[in-house]
Request: fold
Amino acid sequence: MMLEGRTAVVYGGGGNVGGAMARAFARHGATVHLAGRTRETLRAVADDIAAAGGTAYADVVDALDERAVDAHTATVVERSGRLDVSVNVIGDGDVQGTPMAEMAVADYLRPIVTSVTAKFITARAAARVMVAQGSGLILYFGGSFDWSVARRFSVGGMGVTFDAVESMRKQLAAELGRRGVRVVTLRTSGLPETIPADFEGRDELVRTLAEQTLTGRLATLAEVGELAAFAASDRARLLTGTELDLSG
Reply:
């Protein structure tokens, strides 16, 4: 298995995207440490992994709490002896569907502040361990924002959030590359499985996103998980400072 002996931590591991990545990491041999704020959803993913023969731990961790993240990172290394993959896909608290001219400042800024803060904290904790061991992958999810979407849908602070995180990824990759640590973004054009069924305009949004692709289809959560596992493997050892594009 291509991740045999590896250790991965997934912040937001109880969610749709985090769960998909965690299951794929485990399926390919990694020990997975799920971190998030809701024990029940973390346990559900951990139980799925265990039922499939994998190894997973579930820990309640607030990715916005520096001390909690640092302490959890130390626990991961104590349990598994190393840290090979770190990915943060926690919810950003973004508000969509409201035009900017009608938005509250707090609603616009919340996802930007939340995402940049949490991803900085978790990436920093991982980088310190990975630099010391001379290897590792910090994986981001999102990519550069396609602003054409904003012509038809009010996206709030999400677009700025994506672009800010991409700047962080580029800086980290530049600083850490010669230390053996890779930093990569996994990009999609949207994931229909993550859009709530009662989201107003859901069908139109999914149709629009699919029509903008060259293939006419959007990625599945399973495909996201498999590409994340590939990124974490030695098969991708020369990929850093770039996006892995699953956008079609």
Observations:
- The first strand starts at residue 7 and ends at 11.
